[in-house]
Structures are given as structure tokens and as C-alpha cells.
Amino acid sequence: MDWHQLATQLFPEGQDIVEHEHFLSGSAQVEGKTVDVIGTTGHVPIGIEIALSQARAILRTVQEHPGRPILILVDTVGQRLRHRDEMLGINSYMAHLGKCVDLARRKGHTVVGLVYDQALSGGFITSGLIASSCYALPQATIRVMGLPAMARITKVPEERLTELARDNPVFAPGPENYLRMGGLHGIWQGEQEGSLAAELSRALADSPVEDVRMALGRERGGRQLAQPVAEAVRTGSHVRPA
Predict the structure, then answer these.
(1) How many CB atoms lie within 10 A of CB 146?
(2) Is 149 among the domain residues?
(3) Fewest CB within 10 A of the end CB: N or C in the chain?
(4) Which residue spans adopt a coiled-coil conformation according to this UniProt entry (predicted)?
(5) Domain, as residue range, for 31
(6) Is residue 16 within 8 Å of residue 27, measured between CB atoms?
(7) Of 180, 157, 158, nearest to 168 (Cα)?
(8) Could you give the C-alpha distances from 49 to 53, 96, 171, in angstroms and in order?
(9) Strands 18-20 vs 133-136: parallel, antiparallel or unpaired
(10) Is 221 left (phi over 0), alpha (psi -120 to 50) or beta?
């Protein structure tokens, strides 16, 4: 979905979002309250410039508008794979962005992520996936790593990974599988007029304070051991087989 069309559906009360070199920023009205919006478009890979732009926008909200909700619109093919970005330490820039999102959450800002097109790799992990809650549209493409790339790295044949992906959401792309794993809090259908605006309003009102992704993954059958293992590490206890 084009971001202009998306913004029209999300913010019927008005918005002033602008695009600059695939970086989105601005504010919008949701039920009479202001929400700051940042994001990306055009399937752009996240290089150091966009990572810094997003981080700067989040810090500006934290400094100038304490407690104001933040919506992150996600459309990216992941971090930019260029020698220049690697030499400049793209990993540090991505980590900085993630820390800024975490800071906003700790300072009382509700941060909601929405994958409206593509969400791949580190560009998703340090934005929408680290938000207070994250949602997606049904047609969104979500994956941390494609099966061909996973096969090359793990040395597991792609045919075997494809077979595993049929039953195990950890190996499979798509919003439905990330919903099962707890990475997404929900999928917004947006089929009826005004439905996306209503979904956003509910998400802003109901966004959890604590990170409940592991609990959601266990409840939905997508990640059975993540929560028990984390709890065992925290308490020094043993994990009991399911």
C-alpha cells in the first residue's frame, strides 16, 4: 500500500507527514490527540542516514513532547549492505536507533509499529519489532532472513527448510507466522472504511507497558520454549520439557 493512501485511512482527522529520501516524518491527529509519526517507504534499505534520521526524530519527541505516542511505519528491505555503511559501523547506528525506541518506551511513550509493506532483517528488528506493540497489514511481507539465505548460512538444504517452514513459524515468512510467534500483536484487515483508524486507536489505548512477546508466542503455539528459557535464566532454575 502506498504510504499516502495508508495515511489517509489511518488519520481521517488530518496529518502533516512528509517524505524526504524515503524517510517519513510528521504528526497526525488520532481522536483529537497528536501522534508523532516516523517511518520509511519505497522498500528502502536502512543506511546510516535513515537510521540517524529516525533516531533523531524519536529523541526530539522525547525531549519536546513528553509522553506523546509514536507510530513507526515500516517498509524496508533491511539494513543497507554497502561497504561504506559497514566501514562506518552500520551496526552501531542500528543499535542506536533501537536504544532510542527503548528510551522512548521507558520515558512513558507508547510506541506502535505498523508493517504496511515490507519488513526484513535489521531494519525491522530495530524499529517495529522493538516497539511497545507491532501490527501488520495482511499483504505485508515479513521475514528476518529468506530461506535461500538461511540455507547458505546454516548449510541446511533449502528443501529441508521449506519443509520445516510448513509447520514451524520460526522458519516461515509472512505476518501470520510472526503473529503466532508473538512478534506481531495483531493483523489489521482494513477492509471497511475507517477500520484502520479504529485499529490504530485501539492499539494506542491498549499497548502493553511490559514486553509480552514471549508470552504471546507461547500462548499462540509459535514459540513454546522462549518464555520458559528466559524465566529459567532469570531465576537460575531448570527448564522442564513440555
Answers:
(1) 14
(2) no
(3) C
(4) none
(5) 3-137+188-209
(6) yes
(7) 180
(8) 6, 12, 31
(9) unpaired
(10) left
